[in-house]
Amino acid sequence: MGHREDLLEGAKRCLLAKGFVRTTARDIVKESGTNLASIGYHYGSKDALLAQAYVSLVEGMGDAFDGDGTVDSAAPGSLERFERVWANIIATMKDRGSVWRLSMEVLAMGDRLPEVRAHLTAAQREAGRGLVPLLMGGREEDVSDATADTVGAFYVTLMTGLIAQWTFDPAGAPDAKRLTAGLREVVEAATGAASADSTSTDGAP
Q: Is pTM beyond 0.70 here?
């Protein structure tokens, strides 16, 4: 590997061991066998490198999210697929040493990590874009910005809430079955309300 790849892998190991705030540039250099100048040359700054390392860690969990392809046997957009996908995602949150604790660090200490937070905020749309085909079918490259900003944002918001609950209250955090049951009730209520509105409109003078 070149210095760029060495730095990224070293930063990933540092993040998992020490988190964002406690990881120093010298930690990354020592772990990667590179030098301080390489960080600025390849990534611009330590925080930019750490943000990229975190995104890379999350992207590396793709196989866990789709259950090595088993999710595709459920119809796109179905409640069955919703439950399967979120069961896989939630399984990655149960380990106290999981990568998701890093998200909570950014939320809690974002004022000390402004550049990391800025980079990860910019990555939110792409995170949602990646979740859409996993749950709804299709290809990531075909997901429009509008869909990423609505459906994708919904999934990212749901994931953020789940990460927080599994971090702070794992005993009370919902599993995929409870999450799916909640969605079913919300959809049924919304569908019933929409049907009632339609009937009222159709019968209006």
A: yes
| SS3 category, 204 | coil
Mean pLDDT by 10 residues, the chain (205 residues): 92 95 96 96 96 92 82 93 95 86 88 90 91 95 97 96 92 96 95 72 56
Question: Residue 40: enclosing H or E segment and its boundaries?
Answer: helix 36-43
Q: Helix-strand-coil percent breakdown of the chain, rounded to 5?
A: 80, 0, 20
Mention every residue, 6+ apart, whose C-beta is less than 8 A from residue 21.
105, 109, 112, 113
User: What CA–CA distances, in Å, run from 158 to 108, 109, 128?
Assistant: 18, 21, 11
Angle at 113 between CA 112 and CA 117, to 5 degrees: 140
